[in-house]
Amino acid sequence: MGVSFLTAFTQSPEQLPEKQKGLLKSSLLVGVMTMISRLLGLLRDVVFAVYLGDKPGADAFFVAFKVPQFLRRLFAEGAFSQAFVPVLSEYQTTRSRVEVKRLIDRVAGVLGLVVFLVCFVVVLASPWFTILVAPGFYLGDDPEKYQLTSEMIRITFPYLFLITMTGFAGAVLNTYNQFAVPAFTPVFLNICLIVSAVFVSPYFEQPVMAIAWGVLMAGIIQLLFQMPFLLRLQLMPTPIVDFSHPGVKRIMTLMLPALFGVSVSQLNLMLDTILASFLPTGSVSWLYFSDRISELPLGVFGIAIATVILPNLSRKHAANDPVRFSATVDWALRLVLLISIPATTALLVLALPILKTLFMYGDNFTLFTAQMSAFSLQAYALGLLAFMSIKILATGFYARQDMKTPVAIGVKAMIVNSVLNVVFIFPMHHFWQLGHVGLALATTIA
Fold first, then answer.
1. What is the pTM of this model?
2. Is 10 exposed, middle or buried (0-12, 13-18, 19+ CB in 10 A)?
3. At what angle do helices 159-175 and 304-318 cross, to 10 degrees?
4. Partner of 264 for a Cys bridge, out of 36, 113, 414, 432, CB 3.0 to 4.6 A?
């Protein structure tokens, strides 16, 4: 790997190569910004635990909130970013400033139109869409939960358009090494949801509806926050719908397999939500709380490192520099290994104390809720090293504009996940039935 594992972590910043020092500083900056967001996210989840717990209204909100969040990872940080950033980095390296601006304008127009149409259709057809994403609510014995989910999807789904355009702006900023602003932006989502739950919900007949409106407000604030920084770079887009632009065509060509590849993991998560809707009330909430804790090290470190190295790797690939490309991937993997092993150990050993300490306030988040969430948290924790490593390795393929390899691997993982979901939660013998823990364990194994 060029540098020994031990040496890579005992070097002082002055001893590191200049490029790696820059990557380390950027990763730390993104990590700090993400840590602020994640800590507020934990506070947000504490508020959710106090005000919602694992009651039917909580299950309804988590479905209405998670669905646009899943799709956001396809349209914003996921497939779109993985296709857009390499092309934009190439334009930045080899083309004029005018050509870069022309590309940004046309991508903004095409992406905005497509996502707007998706949101429009889902808002109009929310009752049918709810049946699709949470059929257990529709077929179960609690029609109010189904109705509440449908109403909240109408409110939360336009967030997808707002956060997608926010992600587009963030991709532009990241390409120009402006990492702090996109990393800090999610803070506003957490602030809006906390304010909605604590101060606004008492004024609603259904308090959980206030939090749904908080999601929509957060999308507006996040998008507006990025605009001054684009103006400062003189890259504020003027959206133009032009499917014929060569750069747009290339991004679409790259995005289609990337969309399928990223959608594999999102489909796995969506399948978990669909199956959890058939399980006892609270299952969706237990998975939500455990997933949020397991996402903390993944988001603060794994995603932060992957975000920083994507434009860097894209430029190295465009410059035909495989040696430095490989060295950067090696460096990122060593850093992930250093972080994930102690984090996994901590989550396995301390799952229940962590959940009790963070969320067990008031009457809604009970000891039983904490125990159920701890079981699924331990199942997710077993896969933390794999989840973090995938972020780095997949980024290497995307930077080389190779979307097919991650797709092929992702399809196999989706098949494994689907089969294991059925094996673990719908067994012939009762002693095999793992319920919501089986969903988390299937995701980890896949």
1. 0.69
2. exposed
3. 50
4. 414
